[in-house]
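Running this now, will post back.
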Amino acid sequence: MKSLIKYSLILAFPGIGLAQVFNPQNKKVTEKFFPEFSQKITTPAFQKKKGFTKYEEMMPFLQSLENKHKNIMKLSFVGESQKGKKIPLVILNKTSAVEDKIKVWIQGGIHGNEPASTEGVLYMIQELLENPEYSELLDQLEIGIIPMANIDGYEVQERTAANGMDLNRDQTKLMVPESVYLKQAFSDFNAEVAVDFHEFHPFRADYLQMGKAGYTVPYDVMFLYSGNLNVPGSLRELTENTFVKNAEKFLGEHQLSAHDYFTTSKDDGYTVFNLGSINARASATSYALSNCVSSLIEVRGIDIGKTSFKRRVSTTFLIAVSYMQTAVKEKEKLRAVLKDAQQENKDVIIRSSRKPGKKELKFIDLSTNEMVTEEVSVRNALRSRPVLTRPMPTAYLILPSGKNMIEKLKTLGVKVAQTQQPEKLDVENYIVTKYKKASVKFEGTFGQTLSTENHPVTKDFPAGTYIIYTDQKNKGLIFETIEPEADNGFAAYGVLKAALGEELPVYRYMNSKLLSN
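Update: finished.
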């Protein structure tokens, strides 16, 4: 069946809650499309009939593994959750003849209602340490692992942190304590490959408006990787055509299905499917902007309890293994791409638009329990085009009053210098020509939308002015946070305060001569 989807979500009775909108997964769907795996898994959630791993169960599990493998595993803590629970960091680093090991970062549980992410990461740690089949990976890799990023949310199986904020919408504004700890740990580790594990909801409201009785997503897993144009093209290509493709093939060998990640939104009452990521506020793009291969992995699982839980945990594990195997196999290419990406010198992409088009997607028709194909309208972030650009400056200058921005930049792994004496410099300023402040908070802040114009000026800068050079590894994060019009920048989230007609306390230094510091 092929048709152009033109649905609008209409809730006839406003009192109906989400739980009544979403359909549960019935046994017929599970048995036909997602049969449970049979292998033995001994992580904490599989030691009990109900519920998922609690923090108090995870910590003894990790401590036991560390005690048995002290020569490989080191357990430490990056900070505390808002409710005072220490956030564990596992480092796997086996002594071997390889001195320049590839550094791989693995994270799970940043959303507390996505249990296969944490459980899959725990299973991965156990298998890497105790299954000889993976000893070669430990010879070649140093692996940094956050198994349960959002402890408070995970304990009650809720998406957000204790203060109600989403840790994966906080990767640039860094307003939540856990976000700061996690990002600092990531920056300190200096990953070359980073994978963030999640689960997705297969029964979204828009899908349930399709067909006679609704559709559901037929894929075991979906891959979210960045189309952000400040991520160099060679790095985006390596991620998509090597790491993702290898993982999809590996999953297919284990009878697991995969697709690029998509979600839905509304456009004049029509349902549009959004492919890929460009937003620096979330890990897929935030990691990539720090110059590493990055993917956010969405396993099919939210709100279906322990249905096919071994299958979901195994999917998480297999993808982690595939990314690590590809990193080892493609070591020289990976290092070459990352080196070239750091040296790339092109315009700063401040805003971009997703490529619109049509695409055929598969679904499971809940009325027939059969696979169907629909042609849908898509906006493809993986094929974005630039809308607003500026030449890349030699450096950005921020006045001493911008210390809050500087602290966030440092947490993001950006190197910052300061002038030691007053200087008169030729720079470009930013004058706010359009300004709008949101009337409702988003993730704890009133957003700002603004446009600016640059003008050449000669300005006296005081001693202590911050210098952020753009010839550094994490320059993509510099552009995404400092440029005032950036959708996920400091101005957008109110970290950089603005007003119509004002000059912002941020400047573009275009001279190739380095400043004294």
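Confidence is low (pLDDT under 50) at residues 1-23. More later if anyone needs it.
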